[in-house]
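sanity check this record:
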Amino acid sequence: MDNRDLSLVHLVRRPTRLMPPGQRPPLLILLHGVGSNERDLFSLAPELDERLMIVSARAPNVLAPGSYAWFEVTFGSNGPVINPSQAEASRQVLIGFIAEAVAAYGADPAQVYLMGFSQGAIMSAGVALTEPELVSGAVLMSGRILPEIRPLMAAPERLEGLPILLVHGESDNVLPVQHGRASRALLESLPVKLEYHEYAMRHQITPQSLGDVARWLSRRIDEHEGTTTSSPE
């Protein structure tokens, strides 16, 4: 585990499977939910592809000791109310952090994946849909797509074929499943490569949902390696 002098505090798991000579490892950036920290999703690293360079980032806004947020949010009768300026500031920080992490850890800039839970999923969607050239895919777990992101979304031709995995719990008690279904509807209107799953779970990650996430990520890496190995020398 490392924590170099980058713009976000983070933890690192280096690949546990050697890459072929001359190849740089794919990078997976983990983004936690509100009130958590970089250690939360990092605990899932042993279940994820051994080829991945995994960086688990800490959100910049401090709520309490050990408790952080990408933006402040309150939950009322009309749903979540966010601090939009904090959300936008965090989106900009993440855009810069991707380049920092690629450079610092020698990762492949053509294989950068975002994986977020809850508020981390919101941020993953915000970056992927506005700066699709920076990422090779995004995993959105139990989140939503902020209305503030829609005017900033990249043109359809830039989003063409972008792989996105969207998973949500049917009994989610924090962000009800209609948020996941609304995200699915929006993404289905875009030329992204969407995969959507619902599970009999609440606002959580289960072995079943994590297994689907892990397999999805491995398929993306396999597809990239197949393209790389079949290309002319």
User: Anything to note?
Assistant: The longest strand covers residues 163-169. Residues 163 and 206 are 22 Å apart (CA to CA).
